[in-house]
Specification:
Layout (H helix, E strand, L loop, with lengths): L2 H10 L1 H4 L3 H15 L3 H15 L3 H15 L3 H15 L3 H9 L1 H6 L2 H11 L13
């Protein structure tokens, strides 16, 4: 729906109206930033939100813990893991496991990073940019 209709829907939502004004403004700004993104980036965010919605509480806890570890890595290592995660989105579970067990993977990632990638493979991955819509 167009941004003006989104704003009206937000304003008419009773839960939104019950939020403190500062939180309401934060949510308005988030919506505006989202609407200014290119359509492909919007879709990627929506795909991730959809994936998150279907996780169990245990999976959400594991995802939070993995993300916390990920954030604590140096930028170069985060980028290396991010690239691997992107590549794994296009793989079957068997291909992911072969990649993780490969000498290439073991030479590219520390044991901690490999554990993180293993944990990520236990979670459903949102489709990547080139993944077909299901």
């Amino acid at each position: 729906m167009p941004p003006t209709q989104q704003e009206r829907a937000l304003e008419s939502d009773p839960q939104f109206r019950n939020l403190p004004p500062q939180r309401q403004e934060q949510l308005r700004q988030r919506l505006q930033r989202f609407n200014n993104l290119p359509p492909q980036q919007q879709q990627r965010i929506l795909n991730r939100m959809e994936t998150w919605e279907h996780l169990t509480q245990g999976q959400k806890a594991e995802a939070r813990q993995l993300f916390s570890q990920f954030r604590n890595l140096p930028p170069q290592r985060r980028q290396a893991l991010d690239n691997a995660i992107r590549d794994m989105r296009g793989m079957t579970p068997e291909q992911r496991q072969r990649f993780l067990n490969s000498g290439r993977s073991k030479s590219m990632f520390t044991p901690q990073e490999q554990d993180m990638l293993e944990g990520i493979t236990r979670l459903p991955l949102a489709p990547g940019d080139a993944a077909p819509e299901e």
